[in-house]
């Protein structure tokens, strides 16, 4: 049996105890002698082994470096104008729903979605039968009022002549005068009724009130529509705008920034734009604010419904550093990052974040150029821990 040079006493005692040639009495005597002579040496060896085990650092590797690696990125500040892109849709500035000014049944719709119309072009028709009857009734009422006025005027003239000669009483003359005034009022009312009936007959034809494009049809032939019910939607020709949804952090920037619009169909061409309208209230579902940017000098290539990218930018006021989103830690006291100091120990440093983008955090202060920031697994780290750095590839 091989013996360990560190523990000679323990090894010799084990050899004597395991020897089969010794008798029982001899073995008991040797055990007592071994216990009396070699026990102190064995205890000393065991104590030495425990001390060596306690002094060994379980977190250290054979090379003397910490076993816990962390991925780091060196901070680099740069002058960069703050810019943000928002995706929206091209729409006409003026878009109206057109409907009949009278109720009725649609007999014909001339236009479809995408049609170009001009002022006065026919869009749809209603059944004019009832409206024609109203016109005829108003014409008959006008004829009756005209005849009644003629009779009342003749009676007034006769009583006026009799009164001058003293053959008619004043009361009878006043009654004829009142009858004439009433006949004149009835005639005027009949004329207005006839004009209204004729206008309603004209309203049975829906016509375009501006040049533009039909973007939606909201009623079909054979459908009975109420007064003012929308039949088609007309996008007026002229100014076009890009409608986007802005987060609340960009409301102030939207008013101060320079805007430009690029179409997905032609990303190489950019159009200058300006903010025309910003909603004062957030959408209840998306919690964003609708913003409308008028496209300056929009040509025919800017078609309604196209997808557009609105870029908001302004001159940078200070240098900024971009860090991965995974490097930011917030435990309720504000954003912070872990730095690796000269002794390879972690230091938790609070920072100021100006904005968050899709893949980066824009930091304006709290760290310096050249600082080594941990970029992964920051939630599982603690200050003061020794680490081994791996630079970001």
Secondary structure blueprint with pairings:
Layout: H1 8-17, H2 24-55, E1 69-74, E2 83-92, E3 95-99, E4 104-109, E5 116-117, E6 122-126, H3 129-165, H4 170-202, E7 205-207, E8 212-217, E9 224-225, E10 230-236, E11 240-246, H5 251-256, E12 258-263, E13 266-278, E14 289-295, E15 307-313, E16 321-324, E17 329-330, E18 335-340, E19 346-350, E20 352-356, E21 360-365, E22 372-374, E23 388-391
Parallel strand pairs: 1-23
Antiparallel strand pairs: 1-22, 2-11, 2-15, 3-10, 4-6, 4-9, 5-8, 6-7, 8-10, 11-14, 12-13, 12-15, 13-14, 16-21, 17-18, 18-19, 20-21
List keywords for this structure.
393 residues, 5 helices, disordered N terminus, 6-stranded antiparallel beta barrel, Helix Hairpins, 4 domains, alpha+beta, conserved putative lor/sdh protein from methanococcus maripaludis s2 fold, 4-stranded antiparallel sheet, 30% helix
What can you tell me about this protein's structure?
- With 393 residues, the protein is an alpha+beta fold.
- The chain folds into 4 domains: 8-55; 69-77 and 318-391, conserved putative lor/sdh protein from methanococcus maripaludis s2 fold; 128-203, Helix Hairpins, CATH 1.10.287; 237-313, Efflux pump adaptor protein, beta barrel domain (Elongation Factor Tu (Ef-tu), domain 3), CATH 2.40.30.170.
- The protein is built from 5 helices and 23 strands.
- The strands form 6 sheets. It has a 6-stranded antiparallel barrel with strand order 2-11-14-13-12-15. A 4-stranded antiparallel β-sheet has the order 3-10-8-5, with no helix packed on it. It has a 4-stranded antiparallel β-sheet with strand order 7-6-4-9, with no helix packed on it.
- The longest helix is centred in the middle third of the chain and has 37 residues, at 129-165.
- The two termini are 55 Å apart.
- Residues 1-40 and 48-65 have low confidence and may be disordered.
